[in-house]
Each structure stands twice: as C-alpha cells, then as structure tokens.
Amino acid sequence: MRERGFVMMWRNATRATEYLHMPPNRVVELGAQFEI
C-alpha cells in the first residue's frame, strides 16, 4: 500500500524547473526524507 502511494505521488509530482518556468541552471532543489 505504501509503495502504491509513493508511486502515485512520484508520478503526479512536477519538477521545480517546470513548475517555476525557469531554466534548470537557475533552480536549486532541496529535499528531505520522512519516515511514514
């Protein structure tokens, strides 16, 4: 069930560069991992 949820979120997520309409060399992506 967790894996299906993760796959669904991963497929629906957009890249920051696409969302912000900026060139990839102008965006820095930071992330964190959370245990569910």
Order of helices and strands: HH
Determine the N-to-C terminus distance: 12 Å
Shape category: elongated
Q: List the domain count as a whole number.
A: 1
What's the Cα radius of gyration? 13 Å
Mean pLDDT: 81
Q: Which structural class fits the helix and strand makeup?
A: mainly alpha
Oligomer status: single chain
Count of helix runs: 2
Poorly predicted parts: none
Strand content: under 5%
E-strand count? 0
Main β sheet profile? none
The percent of residues in helical segments reads: 40-55%
Keywords: Symport, Transport
Organism: Pseudofulvimonas gallinarii
GO molecular function, one term: symporter activity
InterPro entries: K_trans_C
Overview of the molecule:
The mean pLDDT is 81. The chain has 36 residues and is mainly alpha-helical. The chain starts with a helix and ends in a 16-residue tail after the last helix. It has one domain (1-34). The chain has helices at 2-12, 16-20. It has two helices and no strands. The radius of gyration is 13 Å and the shape is elongated. Helix content is 44%, strand content 0%.
